[in-house]
Records
---
Amino acid sequence: MSQPTSPRTRLRPDQRRAQLLDLGVGLLATRSLDELTIDLLAEEAGISRGLLYHYFGNKHAFHEAVVRRAVDDLVEQTAPPAGGEPLDRLLASMSAYVDYVAANHEGYTSILKAAQGGNEALRGLYDEALASLTDRIFTEDAQGELIADTPAARMVVRAWAAMVEQLVLGWVEDPTTMTRDQLLATVTGSLPAVVSLG
Amino acid sequence: MSQPTSPRTRLRPDQRRAQLLDLGVGLLATRSLDELTIDLLAEEAGISRGLLYHYFGNKHAFHEAVVRRAVDDLVEQTAPPAGGEPLDRLLASMSAYVDYVAANHEGYTSILKAAQGGNEALRGLYDEALASLTDRIFTEDAQGELIADTPAARMVVRAWAAMVEQLVLGWVEDPTTMTRDQLLATVTGSLPAVVSLG
């Protein structure tokens, strides 16, 4: 990384692969997994299908690599800010989640469908992401200011996450039902509210 | 229905079909859809596979008929009592739902998986059931004592139902996480709590 490089010819293989994954993730935002073909990526990247197979092996491995990258992006983009009140930090995280789902709706719903529909590799990636996002609620709130870390609270947070996903997807599909602020107040405020009921 | 009939020989075809469906629903309680084969039903009913094909056409139609009957049972068994406070009636309905999921766990999860996994007929039945159960929240509370009927509340109730399903399935799979009363307090109390946040 000591000198600027030509984007087309000077990249190392791992850098080129990462660049192609970025391109794939970008294409997935507004397309379903089924539409994200090796042909499309080859055309968009201006390289041969053969070279893509060289990097990713086959279509399934390509899809897995793209989804793994998309999941990493989601977890990273929704990380709460370092400081502040627990509920404000959760609100910031939820706000970023809403933005992510809005910007990547096609890809998000197609990954969800594939994960639920028996694609074991994508199911594993989806479950990993869900575990990261819900575990983070507890690690980010290690003092238990918002919710105490108990098996019951862990189970409720998993269920709350299902509600949040459904509500945010519903809102992105029809944003006239409530304002973005109402949505954020609902998904954020519901966490302590629901956990406190048990 | 004017006289008692022998259960094996005097039933009309529609009665015999209904009886076979009852048997299928009962078998599905502790088995997945995949395990609910025409062979199994034939063996349990003591009749020929040929006769079962005569009643149901093929395995998919048989599964659809059984799931339709199971869904009708679920909606009927979880109907709230006629009188009482709205929250008490919801509690009674949720209590029946918990019992239903506990008694029919294998079949319930396999129907859910099939519906999510792209079986369009079962998806349709699942969506119908979900719509019946969530619409009923509003028709049973026509005065809006518990929640006012707005597009936002409808969307939140759909998302709340996803949380309830996830939480009840999680609890049935590991009932040590909280007491049944804690579960019921959470799923019931969360409805007005979450709707009020938006």
---
Amino acid sequence: MENNKTLHLLTHHRSIRHFKNQALSADVIHTLLEAAQRTSSSMFMQQFSVISVTDANLKKQLADITTYPFTKSSGHLFVMVADQRRNEFIGQEADTDTHLLHDGDRSLAAFDDAALAGQSIVTAAESMGLGAVILGSILNDAQQVIDLLHLPKLTFPVFGIAIGYPDEKPNLKPRLPLEAVHFDNYYQDPDKKTLDAYDQTIEKYYAQRGTNNRVETYRHHILHDMQVSPQKRSQILIVLKQQGFFEN
Amino acid sequence: MENNKTLHLLTHHRSIRHFKNQALSADVIHTLLEAAQRTSSSMFMQQFSVISVTDANLKKQLADITTYPFTKSSGHLFVMVADQRRNEFIGQEADTDTHLLHDGDRSLAAFDDAALAGQSIVTAAESMGLGAVILGSILNDAQQVIDLLHLPKLTFPVFGIAIGYPDEKPNLKPRLPLEAVHFDNYYQDPDKKTLDAYDQTIEKYYAQRGTNNRVETYRHHILHDMQVSPQKRSQILIVLKQQGFFEN
């Protein structure tokens, strides 16, 4: 089996949700941003931005939205932003039609670029001994995040990333077996037996882990979140369109 | 400045488009997939799948769609798939309402998960001395990719990744300066002077690079792609909705 330090990091990722009370230095933050900048982007359009949330009041309000106190108590908080506004600015300077920036393709490109850069930040952080967790939960109220961070049309918050010095070392959380997520040439529908075996693995993991242990299989987890979603989150398409994305 | 091998990789990424005629071993492919599997996913729902395209005819057709011959001549070709079908399968087994899987929130989650895992694959590949390029261009004809790879409803091709042993070492392509993409607390609209300076940087880069050199600023590049888009690509929202995404 191939191995090196980077592979070890990538194959031993665990999200960290308990951080020591220590802020990241400006130097470390700069290094994380360099990793984000260098990431591939769709057609070299670099359709993302990153906001460092440092204001205590903003952090508190974001923590309320995510419901996770570590949103405000981590060593640093980034919000990754899908960004077609910069391209629109260039189009407006040249007095050019900018309608293409609103279509589904460019919308996906901006979200992809933000996600790719965000994953580089996570990996870069972990390589320095930091821990991180991606906070999709900022989308519990996307409109409020837009208002708080003054996000103009053609920008959208994709996820937050809370980063800091880890104050826990959780066990690795078992992933779906490879045969359930990887196929040769053609998509394969899920296999009941594979899911049965994975249910048992996850049930054992939840029962044995040190904190927040519970009785839950993978199917339980998926079914629960299929039945309930925060109302504002299930209506996010309205906000996406208000911001000028997925218009056509 | 912080440094380690992983940071060096991340801050020296260049996309590779010329590969040696050498296929990746099964062992290397397995390692890349392990990196994908371990990546964070939205609410631990693992809403992505990966297809290894090995069939020569499929590769040829995908190369025609992307217009890049290296799509079929790289050492390996992955297609990252946004996948809510696995969750739908679990919902159908339990005879549960699955409508939430079609909303904008779950659609974005699936695309995010696929992009995050894809970026882990790129970083893992580069750590082994391989080169990679992300192929958003498979979306030049999303419907055909869906047909070719037998992608059912609630799945969607996000991008391809061509990987192989590099047969080039391009210069690092200059990125937008940090002040154009990173802000404290509040979004900042682009600054004309920053874009002017970056235009000059990019113009010099394109003029001096070894292959495919040309006279083009960053603004030229952005403006060109704002005015023309492959027709099927600019109508991708229709295909997204046909596949059951972004329904509400």
